[in-house]
């Protein structure tokens, strides 16, 4: 089952690269959705690397400093990597990890155009990172961890590769309350990262169990799917019950530290 899910994700994001629109046929992976944020104005932003697949801007909460080594989990075509590269400067290093070959190839093509020497894109699985322990200062990720079948293993790997005293800023989608299956299916059409969305407390519990400290929410915003959109797929009765329940999807940016 894990292998099947990973292959679905890999196929979906391969298609993103292959299609000029950055969208996966009838199932849009986040592009042109209410989930992604506008990166215009972010220093280091490279438009060609932005497929609109994120749900936050993790670099804003990552406190990246000049000379640090930063790891982006699920780097895609390099959007957050290039923003982080501006923050680490010429003396730092940014590594983008992705398990979709087409994404790594596209990210390297973007890097070649820019001529950056301190950026590296590597093929690898977040559940089994091809990196040594205690090797990076900061980890960032943007709407990717929800797509990982074994989130405990993924956060465990993040803990392993971070240096003592290192920290992370990870943007993801979580759930508050009980989302009706029909509403969740609609949301999944518009953002791949909804597929594995967990209740917020369950998500944060995984982070705590891994051993991270000083865990908090740097960003917290509700994700709104319009009534007009939802009514294309669900009945007015289901919509009314959903709105009255107070349940919602949220984009959060979680931060935490590995103890020294």
Q: Could you characterize the architecture of this molecule?
A:
The chain has one domain: Vaccinia Virus protein VP39 (Rossmann fold, 3-Layer(aba) Sandwich). Strands 1, 2, 3, 4, 5, 6, 7 and 8 form an eight-stranded mixed beta sheet that branches. The chain has about 260 residues and is an alpha/beta fold. The protein contains eight helices and eight strands. The longest helix has 17 residues, at about 1-20. The chain is globular and about 55 Å long.
Low-confidence stretches: 20-32
Radius of gyration: 18 Å
* Structural class estimated from helices and strands: alpha/beta
User: What is the level 1 CATH name?
Assistant: Alpha Beta
Total helical segments? 8
- Through-space gap between termini: 37 Å
Average residue pLDDT: 89
Number of strands: 8
- Main beta sheet: strand number and arrangement? 8 strands, mixed
Helix content, binned percent = 25-40%
CATH H level: which superfamily?
Answer: Vaccinia Virus protein VP39
Query: How many structural domains does the protein architecture include?
Result: 1
The shape, in one word, is globular
By CATH, the topology is Rossmann fold
């Amino acid at each position: 089952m894990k292998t099947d899910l990973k292959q679905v994700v890999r196929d979906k994001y391969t298609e993103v690269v292959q299609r000029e629109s950055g969208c996966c046929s009838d199932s849009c992976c986040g592009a042109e959705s209410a989930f992604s944020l506008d990166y215009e104005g972010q220093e280091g932003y490279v438009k060609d690397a932005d497929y609109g697949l994120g749900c936050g801007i993790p670099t804003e909460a990552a406190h990246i400093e000049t000379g640090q080594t930063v790891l982006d989990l699920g780097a895609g075509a390099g959007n957050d990597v290039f923003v982080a590269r501006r923050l680490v400067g010429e003396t730092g290093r940014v590594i983008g990890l992705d398990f979709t070959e087409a994404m790594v190839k596209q990210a390297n093509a973007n890097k070649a155009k820019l001529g950056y020497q301190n950026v590296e894109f590597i093929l690898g699985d977040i559940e089994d990172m091809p990196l040594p322990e205690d090797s990076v200062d900061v980890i960032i990720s943007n709407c990717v961890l929800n797509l990982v079948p074994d989130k405990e293993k993924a956060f465990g790997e993040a803990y392993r590769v971070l240096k003592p005293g290192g920290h992370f800023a990870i943007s993801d989608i979580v759930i508050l309350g009980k989302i009706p299956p029909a509403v969740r299916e609609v949301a999944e059409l518009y953002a791949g990262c909804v597929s594995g969305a967990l209740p917020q407390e369950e998500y944060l519990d995984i982070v705590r169990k891994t051993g991270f400290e000083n865990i908090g929410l740097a960003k917290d915003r509700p994700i709104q799917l319009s009534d007009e959109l939802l009514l294309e797929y669900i009945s007015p009765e289901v919509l009314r019950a959903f709105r009255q329940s107070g349940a919602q999807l949220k984009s959060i940016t979680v931060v935490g530290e590995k103890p020294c």
